């Protein structure tokens, strides 16, 4: 049976599209049953609509605290029988309220070679640091900021003279390959 995925996103959704396209191309034996967003008007919602994926807007502010918000989210995930949660540009920290219910079932992609350059600006931070290589990391999610166990990494060299825009383009291209590939390996190994 296909693994049921929920994708959590806060922005453009290019990784959402890469995952959806890999499923369509039968490179990833899964189905996206839910998109979770933390803003009501972001581009990824449109990408989901085009693909008939239902979107759930989690309005954290409408709950008394984060725990209550995550409990509402867990109810939504359970109702959709979600097997695996994929963060794809989700810019919030999850807590044990959700993570303990999905042990080793929450995965993130980060645009740097963790543990280097965690946080919201992985590409820019690596660029500004003047390192000669950076990359992409797929990892399990824990309650820290990009600190969970690493599953796989891909290196992207930063040659002298490469500009930030070129680096961003290259990192995103690597992300769009790596995320579906790693997931396909994980899902297939578990079968
Ligand atoms: C991606 O580059 C992803 O790696 C990054 O947000 C971007 C989302 O792009 N995530 C992080 O920085 C997590 N710390 P997208 O909305 O086009 O998929």
Provide a brief overview of the structure:
The protein is an alpha/beta fold and 191 residues long. Helix content is 38%, strand content 23%.
What does this structure look like?
The protein has 191 residues and is an alpha/beta fold. It has a single domain (3-190), classed as Formyl transferase, N-terminal domain (Rossmann fold, 3-Layer(aba) Sandwich). The chain is 38% helix and 23% strand. It is built from six helices and seven strands; from the N terminus they run βαβαβαβαβαββα. Strands 3-2-1-4-5-6-7 form a seven-stranded mixed β-sheet. α1 (14-24) packs across α6 (164-190). It is globular. The mean pLDDT is 97. The structure holds glycinamide ribonucleotide. Glycinamide ribonucleotide binds next to α1, β5 and α6.
* Overall pLDDT metric: 97
- Kindly provide the radius of gyration, computed on alpha-carbon positions and rounded to a whole number of angstroms: 16 Å
Quote the CATH topology.
Answer: Rossmann fold
- Treating each run of at least 4 consecutive H or I residues as one helix, how many helices? 6
CATH class placement:
Alpha Beta
Give the full name of the CATH homologous superfamily: Formyl transferase, N-terminal domain
User: Approximately what portion of the residues adopt beta-strand conformation?
Assistant: 15-25%
Instruction: Name the bound molecules.
Output: glycinamide ribonucleotide
Oligomer: single chain
Number of domains: 1
Largest sheet: 7 strands, mixed
Distance between the termini: 9 Å
In spatial order, strands of the major sheet run 3-2-1-4-5-6-7
The name of the CATH architecture is 3-Layer(aba) Sandwich
Number of beta strands: 7
**Poorly predicted residue ranges:** none
> What is the overall silhouette?
globular
Active site: 110
EC number: 2.1.2.2
Enzyme class: transferase
GO molecular function, one term: phosphoribosylglycinamide formyltransferase activity
């Amino acid at each position: 049976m296909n693994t049921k995925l929920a994708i959590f996103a806060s922005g453009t959704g290019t990784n959402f599209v890469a995952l959806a396209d890999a499923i369509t191309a039968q490179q990833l034996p899964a189905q996206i049953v839910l998109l979770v967003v933390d803003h009501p008007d972001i581009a990824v919602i449109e990408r989901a609509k085009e693909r008939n994926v239902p979107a759930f807007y989690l309005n954290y502010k409408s709950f008394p605290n984060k725990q209550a918000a995550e409990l509402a989210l867990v109810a939504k995930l359970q109702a959709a029988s979600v097997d695996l949660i994929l963060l794809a540009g989700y810019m919030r920290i999850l807590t044990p309220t959700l993570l303990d219910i999905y042990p080793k079932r929450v995965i993130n992609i980060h645009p740097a070679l963790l543990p280097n350059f965690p946080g919201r600006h992985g590409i820019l931070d690596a660029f500004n640091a003047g390192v000669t290589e950076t990359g992409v990391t797929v990892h399990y999610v824990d309650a820290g900021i990009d600190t969970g166990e690493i599953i796989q990494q891909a290196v992207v060299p930063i040659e002298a003279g490469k500009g930030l825009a070129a680096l961003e383009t290259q990192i995103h291209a690597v992300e769009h390959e790596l995320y579906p590939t790693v997931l396909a390996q994980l899902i297939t190994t578990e079968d």
